[in-house]
Each structure stands twice: as structure tokens, then as C-alpha cells.
DNA sequence: CTGAAAGCGCTAACAT
DNA sequence: ATGTTAGCGCTTTCAG
């Protein structure tokens, strides 16, 4: 069978405690003893049993990440960044997909599901929203991601949705566009706290500051934020005959779909319509034309989220710090779809 | 502290064994007893400690997945499918990224790294190749993915690279193309066993069968298979002045980059050049024009791989089955880039 | 600096 | 049908 510490101890001629000391880099071990233990470990091919360690220490060295779907580009890139960030802290990442399903999202927060073998959870909800805030009462280290829910009792890492959307709109204004359409508004009209609404708000704010009236006809619904819906919304907009010379798509995937519909309709980008998306996913750089976008600071989001989670994991029971809300820095990335000739 | 089975047993007025029986759905428990235990569990908010269970049973209920990078579309979609497949078997998935780094890939196979808390590993190497076959001697349940290594001592799930590439080329031949370029050949010339070489072989086979000589000028190197490299290879090809009316890009990402370069050069697709990619990633459906591709059977790969791994995990020591090699079914998906008007 | 021994929470013989 | 009990492999007091 697989060797245990006892085997190592026997081979090295020391006690099990000494083996433990060596493995955990405890200070007081005589170099010669350490060497003997190390070579015994080598000889036997010993590997610590992490279940046993986890049982004893209460830590597994694994954190959970719950996202809607990895096949959505944004989440794949987020997961990529989070796994890298976790690695720096020597943590593994168990990825769970909720498929944007309400029940599964609830299971994730309540610690049911598969994520019990973890020391904490990074959770990016898609379906749960402000009304479900009270559900978020996790009894374990937890960091909330995204903008579906605000004001909960946990740490929260998100982006500057309003001001970055405002900046995106201003970017279109700066290149002389005045009839700026938006694609991706939420079907139901009441303003909630979710990416769509926040970004629409930033759009309106930019128009307001420029003294341009908001034309409701230019605000188009699209959900979910997939390519087909972006394309469809754009086809509708074109068919409606409403004039427009700029487009702010609420994410890159919608923008890519819209680009497709614009191309089909013979509308030139950026000449006839300048387009900017949101998220700055990899493919934005390589679409035809390349897509201007808002980089929401994904890297920073990932690193911050993992750091916060690690702090919560390490926190002693008494010294609870009040929940933190962190917003990452954003950046407008100008590419061909808004007239920038350079590549970026 | 978090409640244990003992607490549940005390509250329910039964022994710990009975609690265990209830939790594990053992047959012989009186309904009334079961009810009492269940309500005690509810009342205390008891959750089994998976570390303890893992220590006792030797199983963690988690499998590892080692891929180069999630931000590469193909792997994100693969991981998505694998997580779904694992779920059906009630398994969690711990995702590790090797970044296509040799050392890290070795660490993954040898069971170092973060994947020790797992019951087995699905491994998709990028850097390790045929020469490293001897390194693949894992001492734990293991399933190899992809085509970097063949003939190892483990189960292996892969695709029909040669025949599907042949079919892709034939698809171009069928629509009348005769000067078919290929993008994505490997920089070093010797034929190894890796996707690039296998797919080039299928291409040559198709040309041979059609009685068309292979023109080395039409076989273009590109590595790694990223958009920029596809675009660059296409720019080179166009600049070289070599005539061509068809393109087989060895994956979709290269194809998308090539599409971009073709567009920039004013070459019409599919009129001047028909293009087919490989992988059938989501975005192939939404590029302009939509991209024909080879669906390698990703779903099937994921499900098969997980099933094989589960079998290896459950296998008794004595009854070892010889390693299996499984190849998924592929399918040509014709879209606009090869003249298909319908959407698919 | 090293050893002995307790016990983390659970499962599975074995007993009743 | 239910209870008792012995570890799984490790960390960690506590002694020496």
C-alpha cells in the first residue's frame, strides 16, 4: 500500500513526529536527521495523505469557484485568472458550474453541493439577485463576485459598472457619435442592481453630461448576453429604421453578434456605426474589425478575490473584519471598431 | 463548533452507526428512526466532514483535470463538458492549469502538484510528447486526453485526427477547390504524433485520393495555434503570391485569425477562398462569415473520459483491464465559409 | 531537538 | 434493526 509517515519514520529510524517536522519545515530539526528523513521519503515515494491532513487541520487547501458556465468566455477567463491567483497561495480550485440555475446557485451558497471539501467559496451568481440577498448567509469563508447582489454580509469584489459604462459611452461621443444605441438592456424595465442596469445608467449619465437626450428607441433589450441575441437585437434595430451612428453593447459577446448583423446588413464599422463592447475578452482583439472594449480589470478582480478569501480563511473567530466591497480599476481599450487603427 | 455525527446521534437519541446508516442510505433502518435522525440533522445543520470520510474510505469524490489554459477556448469547452459529465457521477473537478509548461505537466502526471486530494486525473498534455511516453506511469487512476502521446500504459481518449482532417479537406474538394492551403503545420518538419502532423496527414491523404499533388508552398507553419498566428500565416501566404482557393486551418482559432487577414486583404470568403477550421468551438457559429469546422465530438470525449476514469477508480486491484484507446466520432459542420447558406 | 500518545470525524467489522 | 469499537494518516500537545 501507499507508504505513511510511520513507514518513513521506520526507514529513517526516527519517530513520526520528526517526519512531520521535516515535512512542515519546522525549525528545530538537526540537518543530518532532516537528510535521513528526506531520503527515506524519496526512497519510499511517500506523499502526505491530504485527507488525513485535512481532517486534522481543518483545512483542505482547496477553494471552490462557482460560476454559471465555463463555456462563456468571460467566465473561462475569470476561472483561468483565479486558478493562477490561487496557485500563488498554494490553493487548488474546485470548479462548479451552476448553469445559471437558481436551485444550484442556492445550493452553492448554502454549502450543499460538491463544495464541502473546500476551505471557502468564490461565488459568481447569475440568477440570484438583490431580492435573494438574505440567502447569502454562508457559514464558511465566502467572497461574492459580480454585481447581481449588493449590500450582503460578505466580502464582495466587483467592477465600476456605472463609471466604466459612462466612459465607454464618452469614448463614442468623443469620436463624434451622437445617436448612440445600446444593446443588452434587461427585458424587465425596473431598475435593479445588475450589470445591465448599471451600465445603462452609465450610458445615460454620459449622454446627460453631453446634453444629449436619451432616445428610448435606441435602448434595446437582449438577454441572455449571447452572440445570437446581440445579432438579433441588432437586426431588430436596423429593421426598425431608427437612425444611429454608435453602438455600446453591454458585453463583448453581444457586440460580436451585433458586428455580425451589421456586416450582413452592409453597414460599415466604424464608418457608419462605431461599436464598443464590454469585458475585453481575448477575441475582441481578433474580430473583424477588432472590437473596442472596456477592460474591467479581470486580473485584479481575480487576485483581490482570492486574497480576500484567504484572509477570511485565516481569520481567527474573534477578530472578524467587517465585509469589504472592492471595485477593480477599468480601462477603455480603443480598437478598430471605434476608428482606432493601431492594434492593442 | 460544527456538529458531528455524535451530536446528531445524541439529539436523535440513537447511536452514531444509525446516523451513518441513514446518511449512506443503508437498507435496514426503521422509518421512524430515520425520521428522527433526519430531523436532528436538519436541526443541527449537520454536514458530513468530507475529509474524514475521505480518510476513512480512501476516496475524496474529486477528480483532477489538468489542461494547458482555460482561456483557450477549446479547453474551456472541454472543461465545461467534463465538469458536467463528472457531476453525473457525483464527482467534483479540481482544475489545474499547466500553461503548457513541461515541468508542470510532469508534476501533474507524477501526482505531485495540487492534485493529490483527488481520486484520479484526466490529463491533457500540450508539451509532453511521444518521447516522454515513459514518464506516463501514474500510480493512480489516470486517463490521457488528446493526441500528444500514444501507446502509453493508460486509458486514452482522443479523436480521429487523420480521417476527420481528410474529411475536412474532402469537403473543400467537393465544392470544387483544388488549391487548398493549410495553416498550422508544426515548425519542425519530422512527422511526430501530434494533432498538427496527424491532420496534415489527413489532408495529404485526401489530396492523394483526389489525384492532386501536394504543393509544399501551400503548407504553412503556425504555432502556437492562436489567432495572431493564424492571421500572420495567412498574411505571409497572401504576400507570397502563391495561388489558393481553399484553406484548411488546423483549428478554429487559427481559422478565425486567417479570416481576419483575408478580410483585411480584400479576399472574399467563400467566393475567392473557402475556409474550414477544426474543433467547432462556439464562436465558429458567429464569426463573419460563419466558420465551417470539424466537430471532434467533444461531448463524447468528456463523457467517455470520465466514465473510464470512474471505472479505473472502482477497479479492484486484481482485475486490471488492459489500457483502452477510444476515439470519438467526428462530424463536418458546413457553414458560410465553405458556401453553406444555412446556419447550423 | 525528538518521542509518545491523543484524537480530528467518519466507516465498517462485529456484536447484540 | 441498532450499538460498540477500532482504526484511516496526520498534527499537536506534552514530556523528555
UniProtKB/TrEMBL annotation, chains A, B:
Alphabetical list of SUPFAM superfamilies matching this protein: lambda repressor-like DNA-binding domains, Periplasmic binding protein-like I
Keyword Cell membrane in annotation: no
UniProt xrefs under PROSITE patterns: HTH_LACI_1, HTH_LACI_2
Domain HTH lacI-type: 3-57
InterPro entries: HTH_LacI, LacI/GalR-like_sensor, Lambda_DNA-bd_dom_sf, Peripla_BP_I
Keyword terms of this UniProt record: DNA-binding, Transcription, Transcription regulation
Lineage top rank: taxon: Bacteria
The keyword Transcription regulation appears for this protein: yes
GO molecular function: DNA-binding transcription factor activity; transcription cis-regulatory region binding
Entry-linked Pfam families: LacI, Peripla_BP_3
Protein name as it appears in the record: LacI family transcriptional regulator
Protein species of origin: Jiangella anatolica
